[in-house]
Amino acid sequence: MNQPAISPTLDTLFQRTLMRQPHALALLDPLNKARVTGHQPRRMTYAEADTAIEALSAHFVESGLPANSVIAIQLPNTVEFVLTVLAAHRAGLVVAVLPLLWRHAELTAALNRTAARAIVTMSTVDGVSYADLAMHAAAEAFSIRHVCGFGGDLPEGMASLDDVLARPPGLTRAVIQDGRKAAMISFDVTAEGFRPVPRPHFSLIAGGLAMSLEADIRQGATVMAAFAPMSFAGLASSLAVWLLSGGTLALHHPFENEVLEQQINAHECEVLIAPAQLALRLGDADLAARMPSLRNVIGLWRAPEQVAASDAWIAPHAPLTDVYLFGEAGLFGTRRGEDGMPVPVMPGPHGAPREQSGSSIAGEILLTPKGTLGLRGAMVPIAAYAPPQPVGETLTAQPPRDYVDTGYAARLDRPSGAICITAPPSGIMAVGGYRFLSNDLQEWARRLGQGALLTALPDRLSGHRLAGRAQDNARAREALSELGLNPLMVEAFRDRSGSV
């Protein structure tokens, strides 16, 4: 009898490389990790990483977490994040990624919406006590049974995962490795509000393949990931790209330019994955002389409407691949040509690599009847974005939809037929990668008091920035803190001119 083909999981990809080269270097921590988390940087081979993954996986099983239950993770871009995600998958768990900039209210809402059984965090990140944030959120989430953390001075009741890594692995359980099983839950903000977005393994791998094939990343490459991993794009661009290449993953907690450059040169990184605006700044700074080992740069655009107007890439020794991000709905990439300018994006199916005839289809781009951009393909979670059932028509079957409407305004360029993305979704703001409804901005402004001003201004680096009159800044930060905003989020709202 023929057995049905089973698609690989992220752990399957890891174990393939482990069997082939167990003593090859697998993971490299940020050089400034001691400042960020208080831990010393780690260097791990595939065999060492496997031992750590096995120990964490056994701990999750011994803690009584049932297979297919949800484990929430709020960690910085360090080795602990990678180990925890792979350990959760090895234990048959689904990972829910929680951005570091989230406020307490969103953290609690995410835990309750996903019925998470456990949460894993770091004791401190950049001086902020994430252990306390996790404990307070867990107290308001009925489903949470276990709170775990890396680092010292953990609150009472929080299990130390450093202690777990320091002892031999316990017994784990057998899990069927099937890429069709749920792998992660990320969270998006749409016009309808806060939305959990579940994905199977094959969807994550499809996102990683779309980037790695378009950028032509060689097997065994050393990849520098300098993009926050707490999203679909973050996981696909770091974890999936690394596992597909079977090389070394170097991590950088965003952002310290001097440290990033030092890491790239110290580890002789061949691939840099970073926010596109940061990549363009590096490209303007004599990249060939400053970071000669780079051969590929992948720039991730949180504001894809800005790609067409971006500057030319002037570092031909390391071609730039633009990756268009559409929240948690999906992505696609285009490698720039010899002139360094963005490549026109045509509607219809697109392969990976895009210009190679006969390449595998990575997805499809379309223009919806509403004049917005739609996506379909293996990486696009169509069911998660299904429109709400009209009131009073719960018994009426709705017409099926086989694409996701990203909400980004788009049109066709008449001379070329290319799709032009013109504006982000209506009613949604983004500051430093943090998306929220514009109605929230009105609530924050109301809390500032009479005569105060708080507005969102377009910004090339972060999509928008929050700005207020100088005399309102202290009051603005105080009001935002009262609303439960993470302290790091308040810091992200400041700019050099003193705006919040």
Automatic annotation (TrEMBL):
Record keywords, A-Z: Ligase
Family: Belongs to the ATP-dependent AMP-binding enzyme family.
Organism of derivation: Bradyrhizobium diversitatis
SUPFAM superfamilies assigned: Acetyl-CoA synthetase-like (SSF56801)
Residue ranges constituting the AMP-dependent synthetase/ligase domain according to the UniProt record: 14-334
One of the record's GO molecular function terms: ligase activity
InterPro entries found in the cross-reference section: AMP-dep_synth/lig_dom, ANL_N_sf
Domain of life: Bacteria
Name this protein carries in UniProt: Acyl--CoA ligase
